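Tokens as discussed.
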């Protein structure tokens, strides 16, 4: 059963009671991420996320780590383009201890200068690790092309130059500006009683004051002209990321887009996987995926391919996009995609971390709970014509594309990606 409480200062508490569970997963979500930064603060959200584990007046960094381990469950944190989350999962009997720890480092972190310097080195190694992982780096390069100078085009980790000059005051300013009550969501899923959960949080969080955050002022991105760029690098493969602008996460067409993505490249029976990997052996890894925000989104395609097979792969991709635009998929194919989506939904429901994440994201994006029945109903209503029309809207032109690897612009037949007009 889903419950929601809003404190007078705007802090939101959402929970889902699962009686048969013996554990509980708790997350503190902050409605801030890389898209809220500018060129001179890019990486702040992620740096702050790291620093919250580095000591409070009553716990050192090592004590925080040890206490999290002693609780016997799991804990972690992450930063995305539009949210930051700190979470942990423990036995239900350990919930008070977990909340006490989360609250302490969330509200009382010291941001000690020596710890900042040590963590800076860790983050710079993390940046280097992405640069050494081409299947990750190509997505950052692609998003830079897709979103241009909009903050969504920046990386989550930030560039080396900015991170190397990040100081205590800049991090504290970030917390003061964005870690305001109206942006905070506490979420819990498992064997948790809502009122007891609220009572654990209230003493520390009801007294927080709004400090200028107020109504979110996010710059809305705009669609840019198609851009295609080669990033030459001595690798074994060419890593290709391309995409088309999609829609916000709350769009009424989100279920159509979910199914279109599954049909295109979302699983092993999808068209791209079958045509590029299974039938032609052109690539080991090929997929399509969705990335969506409150005001925008895109459908992306990724593959890693031998340089000699780049153009053949582009031709196959374009052919499959055209087929989806010009001819309805088979009823049986769409039914299989719906079954796949429904199964994934309910398999995720068995994972408390996923359930906690789900109710938190629903609160952040929709301001309400979107239950499983609503999602299933939305998927069920999608028709083959819905899919064809949406494909026509998304794929009727060339896609913004980034290629990373041992290849030059003269080697790529870009005209293979030109879309066919839909009459």
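Sequence:
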């Amino acid at each position: 059963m889903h419950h929601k409480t809003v404190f007078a200062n705007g802090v939101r508490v959402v929970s889902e009671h699962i009686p048969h569970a013996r554990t509980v997963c708790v997350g503190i979500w902050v409605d801030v991420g890389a898209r809220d930064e500018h060129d001179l603060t890019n990486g702040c959200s992620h740096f702050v996320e790291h620093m919250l584990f580095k000591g409070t007046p009553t716990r050192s960094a090592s004590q925080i780590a040890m206490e999290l381990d002693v609780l016997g469950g799991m804990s972690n944190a992450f930063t995305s383009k539009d949210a930051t989350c700190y979470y942990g999962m423990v036995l239900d009997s350990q919930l008070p201890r977990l909340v006490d720890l989360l609250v302490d480092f969330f509200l009382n972190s010291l941001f000690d200068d020596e710890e900042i310097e040590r963590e800076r080195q860790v983050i710079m190694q993390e940046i280097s690790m992405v640069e050494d992982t081409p299947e990750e780096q190509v997505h950052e390069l692609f998003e830079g092309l897709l979103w241009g100078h909009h903050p969504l085009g920046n990386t989550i980790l930030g560039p080396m130059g900015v991170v190397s000059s990040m100081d205590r005051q800049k991090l504290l300013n970030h917390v003061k500006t964005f870690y305001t009550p109206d942006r905070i969501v506490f979420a819990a899923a498992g064997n948790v009683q809502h009122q007891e959960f609220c009572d654990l949080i209230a003493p520390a969080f009801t007294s927080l004051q709004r400090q200028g955050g107020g109504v979110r002022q996010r710059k809305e991105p705009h669609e840019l002209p198609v851009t295609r760029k080669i990033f030459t690098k001595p690798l074994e493969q060419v890593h290709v990321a391309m995409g088309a602008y999609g829609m916000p996460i709350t769009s009424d067409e989100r279920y159509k887009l979910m199914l279109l993505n599954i049909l295109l490249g979302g699983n092993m029976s999808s068209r791209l996987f079958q045509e590029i990997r299974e039938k032609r052996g052109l690539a080991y890894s090929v997929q399509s995926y969705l990335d969506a925000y409150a005001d925008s989104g895109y459908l992306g395609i990724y593959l890693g391919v031998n340089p000699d097979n780049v153009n053949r792969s582009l031709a196959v991709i374009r052919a499959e996009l055209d087929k989806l635009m010009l001819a309805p998929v088979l009823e049986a194919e769409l039914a299989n995609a719906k079954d796949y989506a429904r199964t994934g939904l309910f398999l995720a429901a068995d994972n408390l971390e996923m359930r906690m994440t789900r109710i938190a994201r629903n609160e952040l994006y929709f301001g309400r709970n979107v239950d499983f029945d609503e999602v299933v109903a939305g998927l069920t209503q999608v028709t083959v014509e819905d899919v064809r029309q949406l494909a026509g809207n998304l794929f009727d032109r060339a896609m913004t594309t980034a290629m990373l690897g041992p290849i030059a612009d003269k080697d790529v037949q870009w005209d293979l990606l030109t879309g066919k007009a839909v009459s």
